[in-house]
Write a structure and sequence with these properties.
The chain is an alpha/beta fold. 37% of the residues lie in helices and 18% in strands. The chain has 16 helices and 13 strands. The radius of gyration is 25 Å and the shape is globular.
Length: 405
Amino acid sequence: MIQKVKINNFKSIENLSLELGRVNIIIGANGSGKTNILEAIVMGAAASANKLDYEFLGNRMRITTPEFMRNAFPNSKENEINLEFTENDNDFFYELINDNSDYRKWIELNRQRLEVEYIEFYRRLFSNDEELLNDLDRTEELADELRFIKAFSKLLIKNPKVLAESDNSDVIKTISKKTIEENFTSKQISEFLIYTPELSFLKKFEEQAQITPLGVNGEGLFNLLKNVISNKRKTKQINDIKENLHLLDWFDDFDIPDNLMSNEFKIAIKDRFISEKLSYFDQRSSNEGFLYLLFYLVLFTSDKTPPFFAIDNIETGFNPKLCTELIVVLNKLAKKYNKQVIITTHNPAILDGINLNDDNQRLFIAQRNKNGKTIIDRIKNKPKSDIKLSELWTRGYIGGIPDNF
């Protein structure tokens, strides 16, 4: 899992550190910077995947001109956006820059520096550089101190003469690339997405997205469901989906009809209050709560969705009591299916589904300080009171609400 995220010089964020659990809830007033935190992680995902271009970022976040991607506070002199991730005690650093000539293309400076360092190191190694070989032969500790060979230090120390026999520049570039990927790329970070499902996409199952298998607005849900239902090895997943759909009192069952034409995209949904003589209805006739709930259950249980993701404004389409129960369910599924999530919300009822005694469940308050910069605080313990967290928030006892009116 991602244990820590550090963000420097991104939009309303000057300097911010976030220590994450498995399920993380961020609350705050409108414009406090909640989504900016998520989008900073998207920038880190693009850097990790080496895809800092509009084609990648444009489907994942709000892109604007570079001067507004960096913080634009008075006296700000920093040009780089700096991001740091700690994943299972391994650190990944990204330094992003844009010269303002093309807002669609950002450059990661660390990767550029590393490429030069790697190639130079392997050039010396393959040319049988006596000083380098002696250093590597002398102590493994020295090799570990050279961050650009960390991934291959043991291999190089054990086999320096074997590798030194080749002077092939293609081999040097190949090994350099592998070393970069080992030190610079994280699958967990690279796949990070912000999901904001929309009813129009959830009702039209035929919609597909550039991001597969599940688009950030809900595209691709039908095909992912079809894969789950048709795969006998995924009985556990479909059972968990159907069991938790019973959070909706009327829900009985759903399935994908066997007789669908190739151009048909629909599921058959059964309402337990409707006569057995009547046919199942499809997703176009279902209520929005069912579709949003179905989307989240598939998102949390599928092995094809990212291991680390965010949901922006999760409360859409849900009754307050359902909001509370949803968080309880998603905490269980996140643990069972090894997912890590950051959730933003404006609905106080979401907070009542959090167990602050469980360190894997974390609550954060995002606010703008007196200078307008986004800061974030973790609420570790519920105040000793019979008052629910939802009420503590709305009464202003834990912050995260507007204070200008």
